[in-house]
Structure formats: C-alpha cells, structure tokens
Amino acid sequence: MTKLGRLYSLFDSVELPENLPYTQCSTWELEFLYLLGRHHLTGQGRIVELGSGGGGSTYALALGLSESPVFDTRKGRLHAYDFFRVGKGTFASEKFFDSGHKPADDNSFLDDFKRRLGPFLPFLEIHAGDLWQTSDPEDTTPVEFLHIDIAKTARVFRCVSERFLSRMQVGTVVLHQDFAGPRLPWLHHSTGALLPYIEIAGPPIRSTLAFEVTKPIPADVLKRITEDDYTVDEKLTLISAVQDRIDRDHTDGIPFKSVLELSKAYVAHYDGQHRRAWSLAKPLQSDAYLSRTRADHFEQLKKAYAKEPSFLDKLVRRTVGR
Ligand SMILES: C[S@@+](CC[C@H](N)C(=O)[O-])C[C@H]1O[C@@H](n2cnc3c(N)ncnc32)[C@H](O)[C@@H]1O
C-alpha cells in the first residue's frame, strides 16, 4: 500500500462539521483533504491550494491541519489562491457568496470567504486575483502539497505547471480535482508524463486523483509539460499509460478508463482534428456513465465533426482554388 493509501482506511473516522461552506467538491474529497491535513502534511514545504472558491475545500484542509500533531499553526501556512470574484472567464460560481448570488454592487466574495475561514485565518495566506499575477515566477520554494482545482483551461494549467509543479520534490503530494473531466486532457497527459516519478495513492476519490512524488523529476520532463511539447499521438499514449493504472473510483461510481478515452477525443478536438475526435468519442456513447453524464460533450464533438469539410470537399476546394 502507498503511504497515502493508508488514508483510505481512515475515511470512516472523519466527521466534518455540518455547516461547511458551500463547495463544489464531494464529501469524499473533503474528507480526504481533511485526512491529509490531519495525518500527512507537516508544513515543512509550501502547502498550496489553487482554486479555493468559496472555501469549502480550504476549510476541510485547514481543519485537518489545525488538528494535526505536527503542523504548527503559528509558523506553518496554507496558501489559498483564487480570483475570489465572479465574472467572465473566472469559473467562479455565484454560490460562493453567502447569499448564494452576486450582490448588485460587488463581484468579490473574498469577505464571505474570510468570514467562513475565520478560525483558520491566522495561518491562511490569501492570494486574490488571477493566478498569473498572484503567483511569483521567482519563487522556487519546494512545495509539499498542491490541491489543484483551478486548471480549467490550458492557459491556467500552464501557470500551474510553470510556477508550482516545477517545485515538486520527492514526497510532494498532488491532488488533481476534476480528473473525471474529459475536457481537461492536460491533467491526464501530464500525469502520464509524470508516471515514472510518482506513485498514485489508489483509486481516485470521486473526481480527484492523488499522487506522491517518489523520484526526482527531470527538469526537461517538467519543461515539456509546461510548454505542452507533446504531439497528439504522444498525448494519447501518455493517457493510455494512466488508463493502465486506474479503473473505477473509490466509490465505484466513475469508470475512469472510459472517462480517459473521452479525454483522448478532446486532445484531438483541441488540435482541430475533429474527424479523429469523433471517431474516438462515437463508440463511447454506449458507455452508461458517459451517456448519462457527458451528453453535452458528445454533442460538442459531433457538431465539430459535422462542420469539418470532408476529404472530397477539401479536394474540390483545392482543385478549384478556393
Ligand atoms: C471549481 S472552483 C473551486 C471550488 C472549490 N475548491 C470548492 O471547494 O468549491 C474553481 C476556482 O478556480 C478559480 N480560478 C480559475 N481560474 C483562475 C485564475 N486564473 N486565477 C485565479 N483563480 C482562478 C475560480 O475563481 C474558481 O473559484
């Protein structure tokens, strides 16, 4: 069993308060964050949450840290990064406001966040704003823990990789939230590239994949991940390698092999290869989980394919010169 794997046996011991802040994470994921804070993390390296939202995940982790026998709340810090505001392109929900919707005159939920996290503010360091602005490109401090619930676009993932994954060391723990999101294939192929240097904790916890770094990661691997320096074929091979390691999630609700197959379709889709994307996605429509939860993904991929000119169209256009 992996070092992190032993935490799975402690799920039953966790009792989170009922009045946790609104969260987009599942109870299982919150419990795992609590367990990490309570039983695993030390505070010797940076403890970082990327994408704190309204503070539900932050609260669970901070509660665990506050009850830890080794984390020193006077010296240790939990770094929380988020826009802490709603608006176009933020991926933040109005539910992160206490009232559940945005007040007419204010788009920031930072004060609501601070109120909820009140007991933990003394050891919380809040970084409010766009991650590209609030993270320090010069900071090379080793990272002990990364909760990544922010990498919803390739642009943000690049920042996560350049400024945070690059600071991983042997022992660093990473949680990828939204690992069950086929539209975020960068989470999947980057994990594939890291496989020789990490140990996956066990089955994903709902949508979260947890791993620990077990061998030093060569700088050129991290550089390739940051620069997205893989061909489509290489990315598909890397995702297949992850498929070989994980199957259904801990609660038996999410079939990751199928999810990752649909992620491959998105690799092709983002590369403009819509025919190839649809040929990867089409057979997955018979997967009960995907057809129930990802109908919009199939719709999107099929539409893009339908719009793509056929080989014959392209040939005719080339022949008549338009
Ligand atoms: C899925 S939510 C986080 C949910 C949260 N962990 C919870 O427990 O409910 C993703 C968060 O990422 C933040 N985010 C996305 N892109 C960002 C960026 N470039 N800079 C800062 N925050 C960003 C959004 O503001 C949003 O709150």
Short description:
This is Class I SAM-dependent methyltransferase. By secondary structure, this protein is an alpha/beta fold. The protein has 13 helices and seven strands.
How does this model look, in words?
The chain has helices spanning 27-39, 56-66, 110-116, 131-134, 154-163, 185-194, 219-226, 232-243, 256-270, 274-281, 288-293, 295-307, 311-320, and strands at 46-50, 78-82, 124-128, 143-148, 168-176, 198-200, 209-213. It is α/β, with parallel strands linked by helices. The protein has 2 domains: 5-229, 3-Layer(aba) Sandwich (Rossmann fold), CATH 3.40.50.150; 234-311, no CATH class. The protein has a 7-stranded mixed beta sheet, with no helix packed on it. The chain is globular, with a radius of gyration of 21 Å. The N and C termini lie far apart (61 Å). The model has no long low-confidence stretch (mean pLDDT 96). It binds S-adenosylmethionine. S-adenosylmethionine (SAM) binds at residues 23-25, 51-54, 56-57, 81-83, 90-92, 130-131, 149-150, 152, 156.
CATH topology of the largest domain: Rossmann fold
CATH architecture of the largest domain: 3-Layer(aba) Sandwich
**Biggest beta sheet summary:** 7 strands, mixed
Question: What is the fourth-level CATH superfamily of the largest domain?
Answer: Vaccinia Virus protein VP39
Q: Report the C-alpha radius of gyration, rounded.
A: 21 Å
Termini Cα gap = 61 Å
Organism: Streptomyces justiciae
Protein name: Class I SAM-dependent methyltransferase
